[in-house]
Write a structure and sequence with these properties.
Blueprint (H helix, E strand, L loop, with lengths): L3 E2 L2 E10 L4 H13 L4 E6 L3 E3 L9 E10 L3 H14 L14 E7 L4 E3 L2 E3 L8 H10 L6 H6 L5 E3 L2
Antiparallel strand pairs: 1-2, 2-5, 2-6, 3-5, 4-5, 4-9, 7-8
Length: about 160
């Protein structure tokens, strides 16, 4: 059962970019996500710089946001893909450098395991660039043990 709020479900989305002006792209994406229909930005983390993890190219700029949305999970996923495509996202190979990457981490209490979507995000607990910003905005969603597992991954918070 989804965690239903007065105006929808609480969803957490990870943002990342490492091509072009990545910082501007991530900030613009946060604004774009806040303007999705039937959606409200609840909270946004700081921006973080991280080296590519299981990927290549320049350092990434990452963030995590909390959205309250009445979009269903598939509608939200479609909107994320549209925003990625508008930023020129290409997928020439797995973990290719990207102009914008948007991943649904959590969608209420929903659990999905399908070929094109897994919620909770299956690798979120392996990545400091997800756990650290998530812990910043929703500390109850991240355990100390999860943070200890990723403590060796370099991550720099923008002040």
């Amino acid at each position: 059962m989804s965690q239903v709020l007065p105006d929808g479900v609480l969803a957490f989305v990870a943002l990342g970019a490492n091509l072009g002006d990545a910082q501007t792209t991530v900030l613009q994406a946060i604004d774009d996500l806040a303007r999705l229909p039937h959606t409200r930005l609840v909270k946004a983390s700081s921006l973080y710089r991280t080296a590519p993890f299981e990927a290549s190219g320049p350092d990434f700029i990452n963030a995590v946001i909390a959205l309250q949305t009445r979009l269903d999970l598939r509608e939200l996923l479609l909107k994320l893909h549209q925003l990625e495509n508008a930023q020129g996202r290409e997928r020439p190979f797995k973990n290719a450098p990207r102009t914008l990457d948007l991943d649904i981490l959590l969608y209420g209490d929903v659990s999905v395991n399908s070929p094109d979507l897994q919620i909770p995000h299956p690798r979120m607990t392996e990545r400091a660039f997800v756990l650290v910003p998530l812990a910043e905005i929703a500390p109850e969603r991240v355990t100390g043990e999860q943070l200890r597992v990723v403590q060796g991954q370099l991550i720099h918070r923008f002040d």
